[in-house]
């Protein structure tokens, strides 16, 4: 094959934008722990007649808006080379990235509308990563390997999983998929290019009290692998690209100690995930570490170490033709033939009461509990007043789900949920990647993979490696099995197209697999095109106004100085007169907020050893009054740090008023005093 890899920043604004994932409006960005990247991989056949693009981006999920804008840009740059069918865009599902990049109304509620700078950063980062991969195409080889990752996941809805037939459950040793599938890429001289790993785990080691933008456990795994292969480079630099992509992670949590009551410390591993005192709001899962930062590193390191082992031992070469298939489907109206006599239908989208309960990884609001198959008259009345009552047809279709939001029947200011959904499969030789538009649970994913594999088998392409890539192309929440759906925990309440959603997807993905196996992808109907809403600037974000420094100070001045000396495992920190980081994000792509610099006696100069993409640094922004704000830079000095003289630097931009109607953006910097380690 011809192979190209690329990586580009897609972080966007790290302040004031609500983070996407926990749907907690109080969880607003206030700084940076690690940068977010888009990682792109292009595989083409040597004749260049066919190619496949796989992108994994450090974002909560790929939205329809992001996908449509990316494909528009690719078309204007490359014509028909990169298209709906051969470009897969997947989100890692970090819950600590900026939100606001959606066009459907539901997602506006918690992300303060459509945030152009966030959307722009993601779209441009994805396109740039594809550009870099495109420019670096060279002859190469692919190898596949697989193995089990231990001690890194639990099923967070085990009571739902137990609803699946005993005969089906007995075929599996665990209630999560422990298998990691890894694709290794080298050029024809054996030089290492990169890898893609697919593994099912929620990147929610960082919980919903976090305000620092970061890529969570799978992002830390990427960081470790890339730092190891790009020796001597700052984080985010270097040619080796390691993507840790999402899979069927719907009911899979990294918080391996399980759910405990935050107030009493007792277990709340019950069907309602509720505590005797404080109810469901007190039931939270704990990771393996002493805090969320340590848990993120422990889970990320586990994933990295397994990937490293699989990478080093990968010997099964991937060969064969490239192919891709894509359709748009109206998921609110799919007829599914269960057998010769039974046909069922999907429903208009709707969310159930337990959606509002959240999960043990991020609890919901008010007094909602998981596993409610009865509505609550109080909330139902409020909903009926505010949003209108669900139609009888929708109620009946979604049974036994009690509907909280009948999103498929809500269209102000435009639709609340997608109806036109992408289904997509790409085959690279013996590897079939199923790009799914949401979060399949463990058993849903198993059923889908098995159905697609048997479809390939029965049409003359046996032995396919079938892998699920999660959170692709458009976000449609969760997909549970029919049996899991009956007990209506969070994942089931969030299965928006009703109890037969999974059966519909299985039927659709079988159709795509069959078309690929029979080399008939050109005969697939395209399906109804999704809408691109004409959204002007609909955001509730505070506007960026002129900023000021305290009396007698200027931007970048030190307010609280570092100590003269630190030891490893201590935290060096300095606080500066700061400015809103959004100003930097909107005025400089790839803006770096901080460096850790070491003094070299040989050259008598300072050299940057870390930047803001490092997991050892933290950048905090806090807003004061009257246009003032502070920035704190922390360096958590790791064991093994070289002794010597260091300093911390901060780079920002502030808005300066030059006339009544005009402000300009002014760059500035600050530095701590030198300190010794």
Automatic annotation (TrEMBL):
<dbReference type="GO" id="GO:0017040">
    <property type="term" value="F:N-acylsphingosine amidohydrolase activity"/>
</dbReference>
<dbReference type="InterPro" id="IPR038445">
    <property type="entry name" value="NCDase_C_sf"/>
</dbReference>
<dbReference type="InterPro" id="IPR031329">
    <property type="entry name" value="NEUT/ALK_ceramidase_N"/>
</dbReference>
<feature type="binding site">
    <location>
        <position position="202"/>
    </location>
    <ligand>
        <name>Zn(2+)</name>
    </ligand>
</feature>
<dbReference type="GO" id="GO:0005886">
    <property type="term" value="C:plasma membrane"/>
</dbReference>
<dbReference type="GO" id="GO:0005576">
    <property type="term" value="C:extracellular region"/>
</dbReference>
<dbReference type="GO" id="GO:0042759">
    <property type="term" value="P:long-chain fatty acid biosynthetic process"/>
</dbReference>
<feature type="domain" description="Neutral/alkaline non-lysosomal ceramidase N-terminal">
    <location>
        <begin position="1"/>
        <end position="507"/>
    </location>
</feature>
<dbReference type="Pfam" id="PF17048">
    <property type="entry name" value="Ceramidse_alk_C"/>
</dbReference>
<dbReference type="InterPro" id="IPR031331">
    <property type="entry name" value="NEUT/ALK_ceramidase_C"/>
</dbReference>
<feature type="binding site">
    <location>
        <position position="478"/>
    </location>
    <ligand>
        <name>Zn(2+)</name>
    </ligand>
</feature>
<feature type="domain" description="Neutral/alkaline non-lysosomal ceramidase C-terminal">
    <location>
        <begin position="510"/>
        <end position="677"/>
    </location>
</feature>
<keyword id="KW-0862">Zinc</keyword>
<dbReference type="GO" id="GO:0046512">
    <property type="term" value="P:sphingosine biosynthetic process"/>
</dbReference>
<dbReference type="GO" id="GO:0046514">
    <property type="term" value="P:ceramide catabolic process"/>
</dbReference>
<keyword id="KW-0378">Hydrolase</keyword>
<feature type="binding site">
    <location>
        <position position="93"/>
    </location>
    <ligand>
        <name>Zn(2+)</name>
    </ligand>
</feature>
<feature type="binding site">
    <location>
        <position position="439"/>
    </location>
    <ligand>
        <name>Zn(2+)</name>
    </ligand>
</feature>
<dbReference type="GO" id="GO:0005737">
    <property type="term" value="C:cytoplasm"/>
</dbReference>
<keyword id="KW-0443">Lipid metabolism</keyword>
<protein>
    <recommendedName>
        <fullName>Neutral ceramidase</fullName>
        <ecNumber>3.5.1.23</ecNumber>
    </recommendedName>
</protein>
<dbReference type="InterPro" id="IPR006823">
    <property type="entry name" value="Ceramidase_alk"/>
</dbReference>
<keyword id="KW-0746">Sphingolipid metabolism</keyword>
<keyword id="KW-0479">Metal-binding</keyword>
<comment type="similarity">
    <text>Belongs to the neutral ceramidase family.</text>
</comment>
<feature type="active site" description="Nucleophile">
    <location>
        <position position="253"/>
    </location>
</feature>
<dbReference type="Pfam" id="PF04734">
    <property type="entry name" value="Ceramidase_alk"/>
</dbReference>
<dbReference type="GO" id="GO:0046872">
    <property type="term" value="F:metal ion binding"/>
</dbReference>
């Amino acid at each position: 094959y011809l192979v190209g890899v690329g990586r580009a920043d897609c972080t966007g604004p790290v302040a004031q934008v609500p983070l996407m994932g926990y749907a907690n409006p109080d969880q607003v960005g206030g700084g940076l722990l690690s940068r977010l990247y888009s990682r792109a991989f292009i595989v083409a056949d040597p004749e260049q007649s066919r190619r496949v693009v796989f992108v994994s981006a450090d974002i909560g999920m790929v939205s329809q808006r992001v996908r449509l804008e990316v494909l528009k840009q690719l078309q204007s740059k490359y014509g028909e080379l990169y298209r709906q069918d051969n470009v897969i865009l997947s989100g890692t599902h970090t819950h600590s990235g900026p939100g606001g990049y959606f066009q459907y109304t539901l997602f506006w509620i918690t992300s303060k509308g459509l945030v152009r700078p966030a959307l722009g950063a993601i779209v441009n980062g994805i396109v740039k990563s594809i550009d870099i991969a495109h420019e670096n195409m060279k002859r190469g080889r692919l190898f596949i390997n697989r193995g089990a990752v231990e001690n890194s996941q639990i099923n967070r809805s085990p009571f739902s999983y137990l609803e699946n037939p005993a005969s089906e459950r007995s075929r599996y040793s665990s209630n999560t998929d422990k298998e990691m599938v890894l694709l290794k890429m080298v050029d024809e001289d054996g030089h290492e290019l990169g890898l893609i790993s697919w593994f099912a785990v929620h990147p929610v080691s960082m919980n919903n009290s976090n305000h620092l933008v970061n890529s969570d456990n799978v992002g830390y795994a990427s960081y470790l692998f890339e730092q190891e292969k790009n020796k001597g480079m700052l984080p985010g630099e270097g040619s080796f690209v390691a993507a840790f992509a999402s899979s069927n992670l719907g009911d899979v949590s990294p918080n391996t100690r399980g759910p405990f009551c935050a107030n009493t410390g007792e277990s709340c591993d019950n069907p309602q995930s509720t505590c005797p005192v404080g109810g469901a709001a007190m039931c939270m899962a704990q990771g393996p570490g002493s805090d969320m930062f340590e848990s993120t590193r422990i889970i990320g390191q586990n994933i990295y170490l397994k990937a490293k082992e699989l990478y080093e031992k990968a010997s099964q070469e991937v060969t064969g033709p490239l192919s891709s298939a894509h359709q748009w489907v109206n998921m609110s109206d799919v007829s599914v033939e269960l057998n010769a006599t039974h046909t069922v239908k999907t429903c208009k989208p709707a969310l159930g009461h337990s959606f509002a309960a959240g999960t043990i990884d991020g609890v919901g609001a008010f007094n909602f509990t998981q596993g409610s198959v009865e509505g609550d008259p109080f909330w139902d009345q409020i909903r009926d007043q505010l949003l209108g009552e669900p139609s009888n047809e929708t109620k009946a279709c979604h049974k036994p789900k009690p509907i909280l939001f009948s999103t498929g029947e809500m269209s102000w200011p435009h639709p609340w949920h997608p109806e036109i959904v992408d289904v997509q499969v790409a085959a690279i030789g013996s590897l079939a990647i199923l790009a799914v538009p949401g979060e399949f649970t463990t058993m849903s994913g198993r059923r889908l993979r098995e159905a697609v594999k048997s479809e390939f088998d029965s049409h003359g392409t046996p032995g396919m490696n079938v892998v699920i890539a999660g959170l692709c192309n458009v976000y449609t929440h969760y997909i549970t099995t029919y049996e899991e759906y009956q007990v209506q925990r969070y994942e089931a309440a969030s299965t928006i197209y009703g109890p037969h959603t999974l059966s519909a997807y299985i039927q659709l993905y079988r159709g795509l697999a069959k078309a690929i196996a029979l080399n008939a992808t050109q005969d697939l109907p395209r399906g109804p095109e999704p809408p691109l809403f004409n959204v002007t600037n609909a955001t509730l974000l505070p506007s960026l106004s002129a900023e000021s420094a305290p009396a007698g100070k200027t931007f970048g001045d030190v307010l609280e100085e570092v100590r003269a000396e630190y030891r490893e495992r201590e935290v060096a920190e300095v606080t500066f007169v700061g400015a809103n980081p959004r100003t930097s994000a909107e005025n400089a792509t790839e803006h770096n907020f901080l460096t850790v610099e070491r003094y070299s006696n040989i050259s008598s100069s300072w050299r940057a050893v870390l930047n803001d993409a490092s997991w050892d640094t933290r950048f905090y922004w806090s807003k004061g009054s009257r246009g003032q704000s502070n920035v704190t830079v922390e360096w958590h000095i790791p064991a093994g740090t070289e002794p010597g003289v260091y300093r911390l630097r901060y780079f920002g931009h502030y808005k300066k008023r030059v006339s009544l109607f005009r402000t300009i953006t002014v760059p500035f910097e600050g530095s701590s005093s030198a300190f010794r380690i």
